[in-house]
Amino acid sequence: MTRAETIREYLSEYSPDAILFNGLDDALVGTTSTWPSRNIVAVYDRDACVRVFMEEGIGWVEAEEYMCFNVEGAYFGKHTPLLISFHEERV
Asked: Could you read off the pLDDT of 13-32 as tens digits, one per residue?
């Protein structure tokens, strides 16, 4: 079972209203609970989301723009996924 499948299974059991982004399973890294509602939501790696968009054939600038306006700018209520950045050292 992949990590995304494991996370999806967990959310279906413990937070069936959690929202998942279509096509971004490769960027799905975990779950967290939000404050003060204590809802369990999906967590995505922001940079991995951009990489997924680039793998679909768009350039970095367009992928960043799409990410900013269509993913980061989206709010679907208390079950909206969270995005994280790891700030790893880049080579």
From this structure: 999 999 999 999 999 999 99
Q: Render pLDDT for 24-57 as a digit per residue (tens, 0 to 9).
A: 999 999 999 988 888 999 999 999 999 999 999 9
For 15, the 3-state DSSP assignment is coil
Cβ proximity of 42 and 18 under 8 Å: yes
- The distance from CA 60 to its chain's CA centroid, rounded to whole angstroms, is 18
pTM: 0.91
Considering only CA atoms, which of 51, 58, 48 is closest in space to residue 81? 48
| Torsions phi, psi for 29 (to 5 deg) | -115, -15
Residue 64 near residue 43, CB atoms below 8 Å: no
Both tokens of residue 2?
A: 């992949």
- How distant is the alpha carbon of residue 8 from its chain centre? 12
